[in-house]
UniProtKB/TrEMBL annotation:
Family statement drawn from the similarity comment of this UniProt entry: Belongs to the tannase family.
Domain of life assignment: Bacteria
InterPro entries reported for this sequence: AB_hydrolase_fold (IPR029058), Tannase/feruloyl_esterase (IPR011118)
Protein name: Feruloyl esterase
SUPFAM superfamilies assigned: alpha/beta-Hydrolases (SSF53474)
One MF annotation (Gene Ontology) recorded for this entry: metal ion binding
Alphabetized UniProt keyword annotations: Calcium, Disulfide bond, Hydrolase, Metal-binding, Serine esterase, Signal
Length: 496
């Protein structure tokens, strides 16, 4: 049901006259429920998040927050990316714009929003929430870690929380595919048809390990034990190790697969102290769409500006990091970049951009709650990155203490805002109940948000949302029908 509201747009001016302001939008309903939700951005931001639609991963059939009486707000994080390529980082040449993007814009925007709510309604919100995915998930981590006193609840989906560590990991993947020489065709590159061969092989080995062959690999540890690089080589290596077609992999291509499926080892520590970046789920069901691992079905890789379906995706965040944040030279060749020669700068910038703190005391002191999700086949931000943060959070605080304020759901078949199982969950209702009534999340159900005709048989299927350490195991009738496989009632969360 539509509600009348006041749309307010404005700019938060910068101290540096050469820096862009933070442009924002607020939507203030005539009938206010005394709640506000700040939306996160995506990529490297650069466009105003309106807050008029669904929040990150909200089911499409649920009323928008504005229709529910929420004040909604979002910003461009302090730079304008209009007309610029994806992952443009030219804004980082200005220190204030860099810092606004890194962390400050989250605080500045919510402070202005609360000031305006006080003016319009005569009071500040009773409850303030934040929701975002990817870079918006990074901003959600900023909200909980850096500005915890300002927020009552946070939803962070597949968060890009440790940007420098993550982008250098992305560059390592790009080098695994492309090598270190720009403009030279790489023998390690695999076209989409060849990648599909790998995806099909993994599914054939692992789909049924959760009790049913439903197109989703849910029992990931069992898959890890079965699909090793040794097994992949035995099954998919071209007979003489040279590329002879789309049904097998050359030795160079298999080496790239192994690198992508292994942690990246750095010769130095980032500001957080970490010296690695986790593996991607290339042997666990990730589909690695054509715009992630290759250009087209036939073209050799070239180092060109971004074209959808073109240059391997991970090249671009790596390129942006090298050019805008680290060297601050927009002509620097990212494939020639040696991070060991830029350690001081990498440590400095990672201290600004990476939201890695496990001390959430300012957030939890007033009852703040965190809901965290990541998909098992995310090939943009590996789920192991979020697993790594969760494990550190538990190690620092203890599982019992963490359970008082946080939940982490690892979602089989979910990718980066898409996936074979494009999970949509009403996380905000669960968060409201926990924050406002003290009722912790239980028995949450995810629905498949895919709507394509090609997936018509499974569109809308449901699964229980399982906390990290467990997976949805099929317990329904043997010889399951599609209807039975589509029903969450036939699955139960089971410890690995």
């Amino acid at each position: 049901m539509a509600r009348s509201y006041c749309k307010a747009t404005g700019s938060i001016l910068s101290l540096d006259s050469a820096a862009s302001p933070i442009r924002f939008e607020m939507n203030l309903p005539a009938s206010w429920n005394q709640r506000a939700l700040q939306f996160g951005g995506g990529g490297t931001d650069g466009s105003v998040v309106t807050g008029l639609g669904q929040y990150s991963e909200e089911p499409a059939n649920i009323a928008t927050l504005l229709a529910r009486g929420y004040v909604t707000l979002g910003s461009d994080s302090g730079h304008d990316a209009t007309g610029k390529p994806p992952f443009d980082t030219s804004f980082a040449l200005n220190q204030e714009e860099l810092m606004n993007f890194a962390q400050y814009q989250v605080k500045k925007t919510v402070d202005v929003a609360k000031f305006l709510m006080q003016k319009v309604y005569g009071q500040k919100p009773r409850y303030t929430y934040f929701a975002g995915g990817s870079q918006g998930g990074h901003e959600a981590f900023d909200a909980a870690q850096r500005y915890g006193g300002d927020y009552d609840g946070v939803i962070a989906n597949y968060p890009a929380y440790n940007l420098q560590n993550m982008w250098q990991g992305a560059l390592a993947q790009a080098k695994a595919i492309y090598g270190n020489a720009s403009g030279v065709a790489s023998p390690a590159w695999s076209n989409p048809a060849k990648v599909a061969t790998l995806v099909t092989y993994v599914a054939s080995q692992c789909d049924g390990l959760d009790g049913v062959s439903d197109g989703i690999i849910s029992n990931v540890p069992a898959c890890n034990a079965k699909v090793t690089m040794q097994a992949v080589r035995a099954a998919l290596r071209c007979p003489d190790g040279t590329d002879t077609g789309d049904t097998c992999f050359s030795d160079a291509q298999l080496e790239a697969v192994e690198k992508i499926g292994s942690p990246v080892q750095f010769s130095f520590a980032f500001a957080s102290g970490t010296t690695t970046y986790p593996k991607w789920p290339i042997l666990e069901g990730a589909t690695f769409r054509s715009n992630h691992l290759g250009q087209s079905n036939t073209a050799d890789p070239t180092k060109v500006p971004f074209v959808p379906g073109g240059t391997a995706f991970q090249y671009f965040p790596g390129k942006g990091d090298v050019q805008g944040f680290i060297t601050q030279n927009l002509s620097y060749d990212p494939l020639a970049f040696d991070p060991s020669q830029w350690v001081t700068r990498l440590q400095q910038v990672s201290g600004w951009t990476d939201a890695v703190s496990t001390n959430l005391s300012a957030f939890t002191a007033h009852g703040g709650k965190l809901l965290l999700t990541h998909g098992t086949i995310d090939d943009s931000i590996t789920p192991y990155n979020t697993i790594q943060y969760w494990q550190k959070l538990v190690a620092a605080n203890g599982q019992s203490a963490v359970s008082q304020f946080a939940r982490f759901y690892l979602i089989p078949g979910k990718g980066h805002g898409e996936g074979l199982f494009n999970a949509k969950v009403d996380m905000l209702s669960a968060l409201e109940a926990w924050v406002e009534q003290g009722v912790a999340p239980m028995n949450l159900i995810a629905s498949d948000g895919n709507t394509d005709a090609a997936t018509a048989a499974t569109n809308g299927r449901t699964r229980p949302l399982c906390e990290y350490g467990s997976y949805p195991k099929y317990i329904g009738p043997e010889s399951a029908t599609q209807t039975q496989m589509n029903d969450a009632a036939n699955f139960t969360c089971t410890t690995y």
